[in-house]
Structures are given as C-alpha cells and as structure tokens.
Design brief:
This protein is of the alpha+beta class and 181 residues long. Helix content is 23%, strand content 36%. It has five helices and seven strands. Strands 3-2-1-7-4-5-6 form a seven-stranded mixed sheet. Helix 2 runs parallel beside helix 4. The radius of gyration is 16 Å and the shape is globular.
Length: 181
C-alpha cells in the first residue's frame, strides 16, 4: 500500500484505481505527528469526476459544482457546491492551463515550492448537514508534514495543479454525505 504523499498525480475519473493505492487507517499520520491533524482516520481516495462552473442553486442564483467520486467500489460521490471562480480554476487546472500571470492557487503552490515544500495531499475531512464541507491540505517541508485547513474548492484547485498530489475524503464524510450511483 502506498501511504498518502507517495509520488503520483491526482487521478481523474477516467483513470483506473488500484486497490493498493488506498491508504489504511494506520497509513494516515497520527495527530501527534502533524499537530492539529485528524490522524488515525481511514482515508478513501477520490477522483474529480465532474466540475461545472454554473448550476442552479436557488431561483435566480447560480453556483459552481464539484463532484468528487470514490476511486473504488461502491463509487459514492460528494456533490460540493462551490464558487464559480473556483469551479473555473479547477477546470483550468485539469486542462493544465497556466496563465501568464499566476492565479491565487498557482501563487500558493509556487510559494510553498520556493520555501522548499510540496503539497502532498488534500482531505475532505468534515461535512455538516451533508452539504457544508471542510477540507485540509497537507504540506511537506523540512519540518515534516503540516495540516492547513481550507475550503474543499481550494483543496481541489490546488491538487489538480500539484504534481504527485492526491485527493481523499475520510470514511466518515463518505458515510454521512456520499451519494450512491
């Protein structure tokens, strides 16, 4: 089994998952190893299966939508409403577009790399009422692995840009908010 942070690229929905790539609970960093991390929880690998920049949210209001699917059976998915700029940023990152002037997510990754670090993986680690999602990115530096809380849309926008980064959700999140096909 390869632990979170092993070299690989973020997989898209058309990529075939390998069972050995999904970390077990004991592969997740312990809380004492990462400060305020959610260590010890089982992580399930996700793929970005769909991103839409404009979907109806309420009458007269649109939002973006990111659908993150479980890489293996039973193929549950998280439907996360996000901002339209974030949806467009994720789409651009999936296409490998690099603007002449760096966007926010490109800037953050460049700063982390300039400081000798890297984005290892991101985790959708909490869901409230099945619709309010919270995430964290995990950065590796000389000081070890550090957790940084963020919005799921930012986590996904970063993962699709970072070489070798993976995307996960906790089993608890998929159990409480995952939709079956």
């Amino acid at each position: 089994m390869s632990p979170p942070g092993s070299p690989r690229t973020c997989r898209l929905a058309q990529d075939v998952p390998a069972a050995e790539d999904v970390p077990a609970a004991d592969d997740v960093p312990a809380a004492e190893d990462v400060g305020s991390g959610r260590g010890g929880q089982e992580l399930i690998e996700l793929v970005v299966s769909e991103v839409r920049a404009a979907v109806p949210l309420r009458p007269g209001q649109e939002a973006g939508l990111a659908v993150l699917a479980e890489a293996g059976e039973p193929f549950r998915s998280l439907h996360i409403y996000i901002g339209q700029p974030e949806a467009r940023a994720i789409q651009a990152g999936q296409r490998g577009e690099r603007p002449s002037r760096p966007g926010t997510w490109d800037l953050l990754l460049a700063a982390v790399e300039a400081l000798g670090g890297s984005l290892e993986y991101a985790v959708v680690d909490s869901a409230e009422e099945g619709r309010h999602f919270y995430a964290s990115i995990w950065l590796r530096s000389a000081g070890g692995l550090q957790r940084v809380p963020c919005r799921p849309s930012d986590a996904v926008a970063l993962v699709v840009r970072a070489s070798g980064a993976a995307l996960y959700a906790t089993a608890e999140v998929l159990d409480s908010a995952g939709r079956y096909p």
